[in-house]
Fold each of these.
Amino acid sequence: MSTNENNSGDNKKSLHFIETIVEKDLQDGRNDGRIQTRFPPEPNGYLHIGHAKAICLDFGIAEEYGGICNLRFDDTNPVKEDVEYVDSIMEDIRWLGFHWENVYYASDYFGQLWDFAVRLIQEGKAYVDEQSAEEIARQKGTPTVPGIHSPYRDRPIGESLELFEKMNSGEVAEGKMVLRAKIDMASSNMHMRDPIMYRVIHIPHHRTGTKWKAYPMYDFAHGQSDYFEGVTHSLCTLEFEVHRPLYDWFLDQLTEKDYRPRQIEFNRLNMTYTMMSKRRLLQLVQEKLVNGWDDPRMPTLCGLRRRGYTPESIRHFVDNIGYTKYDGVIDVSLLEHSIREDLNKKAMRVSGVIDPVKLVLTNYPEGQTEELDAVNNPEDDSMGTRLVTFSRELWIERDDFMEDAPKKYFRLTPGNEVRLKNAYIVKCTGCDKDENGRVTSVYAEYDPQTKSGLPEANRKVKGTIHWVSAGHSIDAEVRLYDRLFTVEDPAGEKDKDFRNLLNPDSLIVKSHCKVEAFLKDAAPFERFQFQRIGYFSVDPDTTAGKLVFNRTVSLKDSWNKIKSKQS
Ligand code: ATP
Ligand code: MG
């Protein structure tokens, strides 16, 4: 097996610890130089950005070292699992740009696992325990106090075999019996104190129906599934580190050949202002605290996709944070930085006015229009230019005008000049207000000599504002998103109800926005930069008559500023 080409050459990136282990295994000729990984989601929820970290590693290692990565649904608990989740998981992995070699289900191995369990009973290494879960827990001891033996530990092998059959035939009620491995009740590792291998569940399974009533526990199913498939490197998150001796113990009983999978643990992704627990995310959806799994405020991959995130930005983010042995919390602004960088290169610049007020150019002839050149993306000449229509009446942002402005206000205020993006310099002359003092129209005079691109246009003005022509724009709804939670670590606030930590301003809908007519055919998931405001993506709620945009991210990080102002 050759060494990794991506990591050789001039811009050599240092290997992370898992790459180092894999390269060493290749050098040592382990497993005949074969590299095989798996991504093993439990189909009990939608994938989130944390899973993306695992996906990039599992598929990435296989790609990097010429191996394969399989998708394995870890469907050993029929209570929480569903096909809806299976489909969404596949869609999200494909969207990220990865390809699995095969799709497997842990339930495919129920037969093999059963046979192996029977073998362990026959060898005196497993027994059926008839005690309650509470009793078993009581006997477990503590890390410093050894556990005590179950009265069923040394029951005759034949009896355990018979009862194990009954656990699966439907004759045993849930919670009445379990199969336990007979290992060591005094082990310093609690997972080795006669761990449970099988329990009884009477709910039908989404793939195997009512065939099974005895279901294997994660610890019994996972390593064996790895083994049956030929996995060489079983990569998982740090909480499984303490399970590794058990993973190895089962393999010791099973392996006859040289081949052997190894488990390696890495740090899980936690991110500020959100939660990664599938249980919590499910609650948010079920209690309608968000609008479904793909709500753009969710950390799910479908939510991020709907928000306007690109797969490249997510992969780049994951690559940046890296893989270590230390758990920590990543600032969400790093993810936002990643999408800004990507869309800065890719997104077409357009004009969108979120909170419009009319600007009338009193010296511009009524009925006249002009087509002005606009650069589609200054970062990418190949994206070309387009024409935008200019006229006497324009929409501008309400906060780009102030009647009594402070000194450093460089936008429109009576007597002040600003540049209209891609158009002329205009001088503000005043405004109209309604009886409540709210501005209804702003007035200005344009200078015909200052058309963008002409020699006179070099005249210095401090501010540039964006606009759309009132007669040539279309209405749009814009959804402005902010962090879902008000605190950095909502999962850490154990004494508070997480519902009370939700940010009441995480979604603000602006329903009377004006965008340039060019956007009338924009398709769902297309992404744009609204100049001076941020990056926006067309929401799938868009219909022929109604454009809806989601703000992916603002142009600059405004959150830290707001926070420092508040404190
Ligand atoms: P559950 O709480 O239901 O066990 P889970 O988050 O562990 O959920 P799985 O479907 O079991 O989800 O995860 C599939 C794979 O993704 C596992 O290998 C797991 O270690 C990994 N994974 C899950 N969450 C994260 C995370 N936040 N960061 C990195 N990897 C993760
Ligand atoms: Mg899990």
Amino acid sequence: MSSPPATPQLFPLFADLKGRRVLVVGAGSIARRKIDALLGAGARVAVGSPALEPSVAALVDAGRIEHYPGRFDPNWLNDAWLVVAATDSPITNRAVATAAEARRVWANVVDDAELSSVQVPSRVERGPLQIAISSGGGAPMLARHLREQLETQLDESLGDLTELLRTQRRRIRQRLPDIAARRAFFERLLAGPVPGLLRRGNHAEAERAFEKTLSEGAGTTAGRVALVGAGPGDPGLLTLRGLRVLNEADVILHDRLVSTEVLALARRDAELIEVGKQVGGDHHATQSRIHALLVEHARAGKRVVRLKGGDPFVFGRGGEELETLHAHGIDFEVVPGITAAVACAAYAGVPLTHREHAQSVRFVTALGRDGSDPIDWPALARERQTLAFYMGVSGLDRLRDNLVAHGRDPATPFALVENGTRAEQRVVTGTLAELPEAAAAHAIRAPALLILGEVAGSAATLHWFGPRPLRLEDAPATGTSIAQAA
Ligand code: SAH
């Protein structure tokens, strides 16, 4: 047994102030905020103060609150359940606290834990759902920090979920009088489609799904899959929604391209399965294995996250995976990610469009991997557009030759971004004419993204992340092997 703490802990309570009288002493901007919160909780508010801030005076004029003019008088506390002292006079605040103590009225003195018999916690609110955080007045900054973290993690739709459960509470108890069965039902309900439907604002559908789950009682859980874009590597570029589903996942199927920093954000006990495609491996076999794993884990009732580098719908085969899920009747959602072209451009200081030089951007890939040539070279060679090539490290000489042969200016600038947004990011810049040589001279490897177009020239001046961009002439003159990665 551990010994009791030196100072006893505060006892948390949620007070029902509806129709109850609360006195606020002071009428400045802090008092105003307290008055608003108290009115929001349905309290009958009286404010005691010699002078009133205009917005507080307006409330008095509108008959929404009462006013006791003049200096603090302990008789103001008659009939009060609670008093909030929010004056800028420590003497008055103390007088309020002392008078309240003598009359057994709970008192909160703003920013003074010692004088307060009750403290107002930091709060996270989602509709009727409230999370209150207190450090006992000892570390309010820490409480605030935690509050901010919770704000990012808890979806807004939790309020709707709370409301739905509140209205259905009696029916749930009638249907499942046994507590263990009820617990199993809630697990199933929360892991099932209802929270996701509420998040999408689909209330009618959510109610139907709720009814279905309730009719099944304690039965078995239906799994679901979230197809999530992990972004290019920097974990700060994951979306808030992506972070939330990662936090809830039981199983995470991820590509090799997903950074370890992003994976570190997953729930500790989540099962991580790497399903990355090996270079030169059998892509078809890999993809069927992914489909099989997705279906297997979802059928087992798991919350599955399929985590892909960048955005799942940009050269990510996300569409094929969703078709498989759809065919098997498995519920899914898609969380977009920041795609490599957008991220690498930003982190290399290259605006993808420009009012004068580039009116369009193309995302291009699969440069004739099997010898066939599906590329529309004349279209790509057109001026005044930016090209972003994915998987653009091998075959750079062929790329250059074709673009130049079809009329693109050999002096067109490029920026080749290796490991974009990661700590190891490198950027090579130059002109189309020298592209393959520059990439080889600096031994650029996958993952790398090639940006070609007039806009790429700005990397020289607008770069802000990682080391300065490299040029062909920066490479050691001899002894560099021509290294090319897939
Ligand atoms: N779905 C991903 C793209 C997958 S294709 C997305 O939206 O970004 C894989 C290619 O993306 C790589 O060969 C490379 O060209 C590019 N890529 C992905 N992450 C990258 C990064 N951090 N830096 C540079 N290129 C990247």
